[in-house]
Write a structure and sequence with these properties.
It is a single chain. By secondary structure, this protein is mainly alpha-helical. Helix 3 packs parallel to helix 5, helix 4 packs antiparallel against helix 5 and helix 6 crosses helix 8. It is flat, with a radius of gyration of 72 Å. This is Coiled-coil domain containing 30. Keywords: Coiled coil. InterPro entries: CCD-Prefoldin_beta-like (IPR052825), DUF4686 (IPR031476).
């Protein structure tokens, strides 16, 4: 509407500017109405006052001399006076009634305008409040969007961490499975070793029993019948058995030591796995707490989102209510404008009728004056006529003034129509603003829907994270089952160790007499170990000395390397100088080779010139001979009748290869070219010595 009526700039402005424009125009319209009311009242008072004055003047100036001079015309004059007084009283009453109606209408219009201004101010305040609330809602929506983004990022991070943790847990479970398999293999190997050891123990028992039987048999046999060789054999077999037993004992101890080491390593691994399981449980508890926090934050965000939707719905309802109020005000303003227009038209019609009545009365007075002119031919009648004419002129002037006032009233009416149109424009502007607000609300609703979709996505992601947590719990249950299996295996391993300890104790009880020998062996080993430690200390001392020498060698090497670096730098500088000199010598050689080539060419050209000069001398001598022969034969031409051609063929029996005219021309040209070359070479020779002098100076 504003763009159609030439107010596109105001339509493009903000709603505050449009409301201010409407308020200014309404204030101007109210002022115009206030200024227009007293003008109309003053115009009406002036018209009534003029009518009174006209009636009084006409009555005083026309009818008094007529009553004095002509009593015949008293009755019509009295009738005319009565009519005029009645019409005047009626006009006054009508004017008063119209004035009171106009005053009432003006008051009502002013009151309604005041109410409209108050409502407009209230609407502007409400719009400002709504704008503030919208800004707050926008900020809250932005915050909610940021929170949602943060929650998404946290969820992605948690998902990534969960995936990483799951991968780590899977890897850890795989490692645990591998370790459990390794432990089972170790247990199996230990069982096999236990069986082997049991077999070895049984063999040793059998051998010990056999050795004891052999000793008993040896004690019962007579000493005289046995030879010295037979006496020497049992000790060798006993020693072998002892050595074998000692080796078996050492092997058993080594196996025991290995088993103890394996048990310690298994216990350490179990403790390490328990610590890892505790860490995983703590991590899972932390993840659960974070998930709970995220759920709480999601609930808070959902509540905020619901609050924002409620606020938006309430704002839309208030906005619709404001639109309804604006439409009602528009309808009231239109009705008031229509009523005021109708009242003004009625008043204008009444004034037009009054003017027509006044004109009719004036015509009647003119007719009466003409009659009076016909009746009265005296001077007084002439004077009265003149006065009447003057007063008629004044009445005509007053009519012109009233017409001007009527035109001014019409102009004021046009201004009122313009103000009404402006109010309609403002109403259309408000409607456009309402449409814009509807568009903004629809945009906000679309944003809210997008946020709902995002919340649904977040809920789906949350469900996925819950599924991941369930899988983690299942993996933890599997880990607990594996730990229980590990404990069962550990118990079995403890039982095996107990059985092995029982066998070892039995074996130790049976072989206590071997301990002394083992102690001796230990003493020897300790002595050897001490000797070895001394040797190791000596070697360490030697190694320290070697390290010191090595450090000295390193320092010497560093010095040598530094000197080598210095020498390399000097060498590089010398190489650069040498390369520069080689370049200079190469350039000198190039110049010398070019000079030599030129000299060689000059020598060849000199040789060619010498050959040419020899040929030319030969040709000159030959030409001289020809000239002489020609002179001789010219004298004899008259005698001889031989043709010239035959004479020349006889005189000149020369070959074409030896001499010809073209050869002479070419020889002359060659001489010229040789002279030019000699001049150029002389100039070049003058330049070459300067170059050679420069090289010699260098």
């Amino acid at each position: 509407m504003l763009s159609q009526e030439g107010l596109s700039e105001i339509a493009l402005g903000s709603p505050r500017e449009q409301i201010e424009y409407l308020l200014v125009e309404r204030s101007t319209f109210s002022r115009k109405l206030e200024t227009g009311g007293p003008k109309q009242e003053s115009q009406r008072h002036m018209a009534s006052h003029l009518q009174e004055r006209l009636a009084q003047e006409t009555f005083e100036q026309v009818y008094q001399p007529l009553q004095r001079e002509h009593e015949k015309y008293q009755e019509p004059v009295q009738q005319s006076e009565k009519i005029l007084s009645e019409s005047h009283s009626e006009d006054l009453e009508k004017a008063k009634i119209s004035q009171t109606c106009l005053e009432r209408n003006a008051k009502q219009v002013a009151e309604r305008l005041g109410m409209a201004q108050e409502e407009i101010q209230r609407l502007t305040d409400e719009l400002k409040r709504k704008e503030k609330e919208q800004s707050k809602l926008d900020s809250a929506l932005e915050k909610a969007q940021l929170e949602i983004k943060k929650l998404k990022e946290n969820l992605t991070k948690l998902q990534e961490n969960d995936s990483v943790d799951l991968q780590k847990a899977k890897e850890h479970n795989q490692r645990l499975d591998e370790e459990i398999l390794a432990l089972r293999n170790r247990v199996r190997s230990l069982d096999s070793e236990k069986k082997m050891l049991g077999e070895v123990v049984e063999k040793l028992k059998g051998e010990i029993h056999e050795s004891q039987e052999n000793k008993q048999l040896g004690n019962h046999s007579p000493g005289k019948t046995v030879d010295t060789k037979q006496r020497e054999q049992p000790p060798s077999s006993e020693e072998k058995l002892k050595y074998q037993q000692q080796e078996d004992v050492q092997k058993l101890r080594q196996n025991l030591h290995r088993l103890q080491v394996l048990c310690c390593s298994a216990e350490k691994e179990l403790q390490y796995e328990r610590g890892k399981n505790l860490d995983l449980k703590q991590h899972n508890s932390l993840l659960q707490e974070e998930n709970i926090k995220i759920k709480v934050e999601l609930k808070q965000a959902q509540q905020k989102f619901l609050d924002s939707t409620k606020m938006c719905s309430s704002l839309t309802a208030e906005w619709k209510h404001c639109q309804q109020k604006i439409r009602e005000l528009e309808l009231e303003v239109q009705a008031q404008s229509i009523k005021s227009q109708n009242n003004l038209q009625e008043k204008l019609d009444q004034e037009k009728s009054k003017v027509a009545d006044a004109e009719a009365k004036i015509l009647d007075l003119q007719q009466k004056l003409e009659q009076a002119h016909k009746v009265c031919l005296s001077d007084t009648c002439a004077l009265g006529k003149k006065q009447l004419e003057e007063r008629i002129k004044e009445a005509l002037e007053n009519e012109a003034k009233t017409k001007q006032q009527y035109q001014e009233e019409q102009q004021n009416r046009k201004l009122l129509d313009q103000n009404v149109n402006e109010l309609q424009k403002q109403v259309s502007i408000l409607q456009d603003k309402g449409n814009q607000l509807e568009i903004t609300t629809s945009q906000q609703q679309s944003r809210i829907q997008e946020q709902e979709a995002q919340l649904k996505q977040l809920e789906d992601e949350k469900r996925k994270s819950d599924e991941h947590l369930k899988s983690n719990q299942e993996l933890l249950e599997k880990l607990s089952g594996l730990q229980q299996e590990k404990e069962v295996l550990r118990e079995k391993y403890g039982q095996l160790l107990k059985q092995f300890d029982v066998h070892v104790r039995n074996y130790n009880e049976k072989h206590q007499h071997h301990k002394a020998k083992l102690r001796r062996v230990k003493d020897r080993l300790v002595h050897e170990v001490e000797l070895r430690d001394k040797k190791i200390e000596k070697l360490e001392h030697e190694i320290r000395i070697l390290h010191q020498e090595k450090e000295k060698d390193k320092a010497f090497r560093d010095q040598v390397i530094a000197q080598n670096d210095i020498l390399l730098l000097e060498k590089r500088k010398l190489l650069e100088q040498f390369l520069d000199q080689e370049q200079l010598t190469h350039s000198n050689k190039c110049v010398i080779s070019s000079v030599e080539n030129r000299v060689f060419l000059l020598d060849q050209e000199n040789k060619q010139l010498r050959e040419i000069s020899l040929r030319l001398t030969q040709h000159v001598g030959f030409l001289k001979r020809i000239i002489k022969s020609m002179q001789i034969y010219e004298e004899k031409e008259t005698i001889n009748d031989v043709p010239e051609l035959e004479v020349w063929s006889k005189i000149l029996p020369l070959s074409s290869s030896s001499f010809s005219g073209r050869g002479l021309v070419q020889s002359v040209r060659n001489l010229q070219e040789l002279e030019e070359r000699k001049s150029e070479e002389a100039i070049a020779n003058l330049e070459v010595p300067q170059v050679s002098l420069g090289f010699t100076e260098f």
